[in-house]
Write a structure and sequence with these properties.
The chain is 32% helix and 23% strand. With 483 residues, the protein is α/β, with parallel strands linked by helices. It has three domains: 94 residues, Udp-n-acetylmuramoylalanyl-d-glutamate--2,6- Diaminopimelate Ligase, Chain: A, domain 1, CATH 3.40.1390.10; 220 residues, Mur-like, catalytic domain (UDP-N-acetylmuramoyl-L-alanine:D-glutamate ligase, 3-Layer(aba) Sandwich); 153 residues, Protein-Tyrosine Phosphatase, Chain A. Its cofactor is Mg(2+).
Length: 483
């Protein structure tokens, strides 16, 4: 593709060289640059791409998109200067990969919790309807039935557009995508055109990056502010920030709720460990999901599918066939008569949701033992709150390691314990080794009790000192059950 086509939607402040040259690729990582590529110098959170312009040129870059021109300019290289490369890289990638979202119905899901479940279930439901569908999620990306490993909740703009281009080429009609607050703030989704957006909820998370809840809220809201007028914006009015998301959007607005009058109204009729009986818009359905938070997630899926033109009856029938997403309220029954639940809950609110769901089903007829930790090199402020919420809703809590990353596991545990008083600590055990913590929980459990193993869910590794070691909560539980 010609360079002038790639930069046609970008505000250029200065152009040195020729813009009618042929490009073979586009990169913001100098290590991936090859002959004939455009290199985009992005000022990232860790490194500044401007430091790697000369490296990119040595590797064959024939054009450079930058905010600041290098002091020495190379001959036969075109320099395109812009005010903001973070914004420009998405637009350049969209153009280079043939504007894939103009050929797709792209729906983004944003919020603290529920993104993976909603995006994955929409992917499942539209494949059930017979369409070719794409999925961009924390767990895995899919180009219809081809799995593409995920490294981030939302990939960088170039990888993202390349993936979307492959989805369009494969004949996908719909794509469902988790949209993280980081990707909105870092303009990774710049240049994409959405057919719809869904808001789940907003609670404390990622404050290591956003610093304040207000900044976190603004990042989420920007996604809805930028939706086009022919898109839909579907929001959860059970969350206090639900209507905030719709304040400045140009999109058509819709609401869903388990409590209030709205466009898509849901109600839990029965709740068991095997599933729930629900009522959506006065129509009953039985599902294999558990808990109020999942009823809310399913309601969002129902609403979005209807807004994409599907009949309510067809959507309800499809919902009744779906199974929970890996690592989200995964229920395992032990031969000894207790139940273990593996869940990705790694925020205070997610823990409250899962523990509340367990209480609703148990109705006081069994004890709850919670195994929980907190990730290293992430928001430290949520650690004491997670310990508090666990103790408040459990009979026994075992505080252990999650992904300590580059921190000392005991330091993370101490941060969690700091949120508890002497009385609360009486029901807490600390075991650094996560495998041993899960074993201990199983030894303590009696028939009818429930063990919640929280924090890692679908993850099959534990990251310690920068190294990922194989670790799977469900594998450990099955091993204990077998013994």
């Amino acid at each position: 593709m010609k360079l002038d086509q790639v930069i046609k939607n970008i505000q250029v402040t200065n152009l040195i060289g020729h813009s009618d040259i042929d490009l073979k690729g586009i990169n913001s990582d100098s290590r991936k640059v090859e002959s004939g590529h455009l290199f985009v110098a992005v000022k990232g959170t860790q490194t500044d791409g401007h430091s790697y312009i000369s490296t990119a040129i040595e590797k064959g870059a024939i054009a450079v998109l930058c905010e600041e021109l290098p002091t020495e300019l190379s001959e036969n290289v075109t320099y395109i200067q812009v005010k903001d490369t973070e914004d420009a890289v998405g637009k350049a990638a969209t153009a280079f990969y043939g504007d894939p979202t103009s050929k797709l119905e792209l729906v983004g899901v944003t919020g603290t919790n529920g993104k993976t479940t909603i995006a994955t279930l929409l992917y499942d439901i539209f494949r059930h309807f017979g369409y070719k569908v794409g999925l961009l999620s924390t767990v895995c990306n899919y180009i219809d039935d081809e799995a593409v490993p995920a490294t981030h909740t939302t990939p960088d703009p170039i990888s993202l557009n390349e993936l979307l281009g492959r989805m369009a080429d494969a004949g996908c009609k719909y794509v469902f995508m988790e949209v993280s607050s980081h990707s909105i703030d870092q303009k990774r989704i710049s240049g994409l055109r959405y057919a719809g957006g869904i808001f789940t909820n907003l609670t404390r998370d990622h404050l290591d990056y956003h610093k304040t809840v207000e900044n976190y809220l603004k990042a989420k809201k920007k996604f809805f502010d930028d939706l086009p007028k022919d898109a839909f914006a579907l929001t959860n009015v059970d969350d206090k920030n639900g209507m905030v998301m719709l304040q400045n959007t140009k999109a058509k607005t819709y609401t869903y709720s388990l409590r209030s009058l709205c466009d898509f109204k849901g109600k839990i009729l029965e709740n068991h460990f095997e599933g729930m009986l629900l009522s959506f818009n006065e129509k009953e359905l039985a599902v294999q999901f558990i808990g109020k938070f999942n009823a809310s997630n399913l309601l969002a899926v129902f609403g979005a599918a209807c807004l994409l033109g599907k009949k309510e009856e067809d959507v309800l029938l499809a919902l009744s066939t779906l199974r929970p997403v890996a690592g989200r309220f995964d229920s395992l029954r032990s031969p000894q008569g207790y139940t273990a639940i593996v869940d990705y809950a790694h925020t205070p609110d997610a823990l409250v949701n899962v523990l509340s769901a367990i209480h609703e089903i148990l109705e006081g007829k069994g004890k709850i033992i919670t195994v929980v930790g907190a990730g290293g090199n992430r928001d430290k402020g949520k650690r004491p709150i997670m310990a508090q919420e666990s103790v408040k809703a459990s009979d026994k809590v075992i505080i252990t390691s999650d992904n300590p990353r580059n921190e000392e596991p005991q330091d993370i545990i101490n941060d969690m314990l700091a949120g508890l008083n002497a009385e609360e600590r009486k029901n807490v055990i600390t075991i650094v080794d996560r495998k041993e913590a899960i074993r201990t929980a199983c030894m303590l459990a009696q028939p009818g009790d429930v063990i919640l193993v929280a924090g890692k869910g679908h993850e099959n590794y534990q990251e310690i000192k920068g190294v990922k070691h194989h670790f799977d909560d469900k594998e450990v539980l099955r091993e204990v059950f077998g013994n």
